[in-house]
Amino acid sequence: RTTDPSSSLHRAVKGHEAKVDWVMDKLLNDKRILQVVAISGMGGVGKTTLAQSVYNHRISLARFDKRIWCTISQNSSLEDIFQALLGEKQTEGSIHELGLRLYNKLMGHRFLIVLDDMWDLTAWNRMKSYLPEDENSSGVIITTRISSIADSIRTTLDPCSLDLLDENASWELLKETIFGNGDCPPELEDIGKKIAISCRGLPLSLVTIAGVLSKSGRSVILWERVAENVRRFLSDDEHGLKVLNLSYQSLPMRLKPCFLYLRNFKEDETIEAKYLIRSWICEGLVRPVADKTVEEVAEEYLRDLIDRNLILILKRSISEEIKECSVHDFIRELCIRVSQKEKFVSTLR
Known about the structure:
- 48% of the residues lie in helices and 11% in strands.
- The N and C termini lie far apart (44 Å).
- It has helices at 17-27, 47-55, 58-63, 78-86, 95-106, 122-127, 147-153, 167-179, 186-198, 203-214, 220-228, 230-235, 238-249, 256-260, 273-282, 294-307, 329-342, and strands at residues 35-40, 66-71, 111-118, 139-144, 160-161, 271-272, 312-316, 322-326.
- Strand 7 and strand 8 (322-326) form a beta hairpin.
- The protein folds into three domains: 5-161, P-loop containing nucleotide triphosphate hydrolases (Rossmann fold); 167-238, Helicase, Ruva Protein, domain 3 (Orthogonal Bundle); 252-342, Winged helix-like DNA-binding domain superfamily/Winged helix DNA-binding domain (Arc Repressor Mutant, subunit A, Orthogonal Bundle).
- It is built from 17 helices and eight strands.
- It has 349 residues and is an alpha/beta fold.
- The model is unreliable at 1-12 (pLDDT under 50).
- Helix 1 crosses helix 2 (47-55), helix 4 packs parallel to helix 5 and helix 15 packs across helix 16 (294-307).
């Protein structure tokens, strides 16, 4: 589907201003070749919002005479993507014919294309040959939840990886989403900062909780009630869980049980990587693979879930071995919700 997000640019770019500047700098440099910038990070961290900010930036509006935004679903075929980029539905023709039509549409223009939420490389590897390389300083922005895709997409540019916000940026985003340019009442500030910390730096969580607080008026008692029940309010947010559920649905079948097992850990718990791997093996969640030990396969599972930004690395050894990791509370809530729905059972720790 093709969308122009100009009317929906959200304050959630707060905390990622430097990243916006970085992407703008890469797109607007003096090189005339096609610039491809990949933005990666977990669901809800602000990838789409950052891309929107660049797409709608006044400099982009002046520089690129043709701008196209395309949101990619997990089921999007290359034909669907071409039709979206062409602005045509039910267009007949082979993939090659559609690609040539896109090429002719873009040729001679300085264009900016956003491909939002890329799930695999197949479509990109086939479509990129239909993007004109006419030294016109055009650009492509690709957002993805999968870090290895961002690494593979890069041409001369490193990918832009979005991390979780720190405590100060989290509070600034929460405060600005609720009060706009106004000030937070002094009596709410300490409670508000506590709530922001509870969201653990995920903009999606912060915006969700900001919506709850906005409806709570400016009552200290109501804000304290929210502070004590952040997890419950997040678990009631169907939109947020739907956004994150896309990451679960995209998992290969072999990884789904290992992901759902993460529900057994406590909120904010530091998880030893070796313990997690042993637990998966003991539960029978790791499939044997020829010429590999079960431990090696389990380590690959862990790296794959990290690559998909579903598990966060907390500590590495000097040799870069993963020592400790964790799961964001919102991701853990997704594990619990999906486990209940799919009746996933594992031995409780």
